[in-house]
Amino acid sequence: MSIRVAIAGPRGKMGAEAVHTVMKHAKMELVAVLDYKEVGHTLADLEMFPASYTAPIFTDMHELVEATAPDVLVDLTNPHAVYQHTKEALNLNVRPVIGTTGFTDAQLEELSALANEKELGCIIAPNFAIGAILMMKFAKEAAKYLPDVEIIEMHHDQKLDAPSGTGVKTAQMIQEVRAQKMQGHPEEKETIEGARGADFDGMRIHSVRLPGLVAHQQVLFGGDGQLLTIRHDSLNRNSFMSGVAFCVEEVMKMDQLVYGLENII
Ligand code: NAP
């Protein structure tokens, strides 16, 4: 039986790719999409999709679920909408697969408790690209031996949140193995605010935003007389789609929230 999938944010750069991915997938059926404004009755009404894409467009999650009974909601919207979408989906017994970034720790804790209570799978993946997951795993390993680290994440200039979900997730994974330490000179002073980047447990995260970039990250380690750089580049949004499809299948087997793809691959 195919997995019934709904996608929130179908007109977006990631959402549109996810629509094509689910439409092409032999084991999935795109039953509906969620938008926040009236943009047409079905995807076929949008110029960006072919006439054969007949999934209905809803602006209300309750109506969407009642009419189309999805198993999974894939959310690729924005940091303002995603928390509410995830909560509503869980309350309506739909399993969320969330690619949207920008959750607070308190929101993640609350959603984790809700998924546990409902015994429903929920995957929140700040990065669906396998290479990015490996970059984070290798960075965690390297930090055991080289604890001085700076993260430079680089994204297109339409991105709303900074630092990126991947940058924060990388820092969290490094924090698990690294004793807390302040880096740089103890008396260093910023002559322009923000020059040293964001402080995460003594590590610095720098966010670059430029047109032309997609999603890129370098993790830089410094030691006596040596440097190690681990770098990943997503050159287009196809790099994320095998991860989206993998999560849609995996979430059906789960009964709790998982934050980060590295915990399930
Ligand atoms: P985007 O092109 O701006 O797409 C977001 C889409 O969501 C837009 O079409 C937007 O409509 C729509 N939207 C906004 N509020 C909505 C709501 N309440 N309900 C339904 N749709 C809504 O952004 P993107 O580049 O596709 O990225 C989307 C999210 O995925 C971002 O959080 C980004 O950081 C994240 N991301 C994750 C990964 C990953 O691997 N996990 C990779 C890349 C990006 P309007 O344009 O009309 O506002």
Q: What is the helix content? A: 25-40%
Strand order of the largest sheet: 3-2-1-4-5-6-12
- From the N-terminal CA to the C-terminal CA, the straight-line distance is 24 Å
The secondary structure category is alpha/beta
Largest β sheet strand count, sense and barrel closure? 7 strands, parallel
- Principal-axes geometry comes out as elongated
Please describe the structure with a list of short key phrases separated by commas or semicolons:
265 residues, alpha/beta, five-stranded mixed beta sheet, 7 helices, elongated
What does this structure look like?
The chain has a 7-stranded parallel sheet with strand order 3-2-1-4-5-6-12, sandwiched between helices. Strands 8-9-7-10-11 form a 5-stranded mixed sheet, with helices on one face. With 265 residues, the protein is α/β, with parallel strands linked by helices. The model has no long low-confidence stretch (mean pLDDT 96). α3 links the parallel β4 (72-75) and β5. The protein contains 7 helices and 12 strands. The protein is elongated and about 60 Å long. The two termini are 24 Å apart. The longest helix has 14 residues, at 105-118. NADP nicotinamide-adenine-dinucleotide phosphate (NAP) binds next to α1.
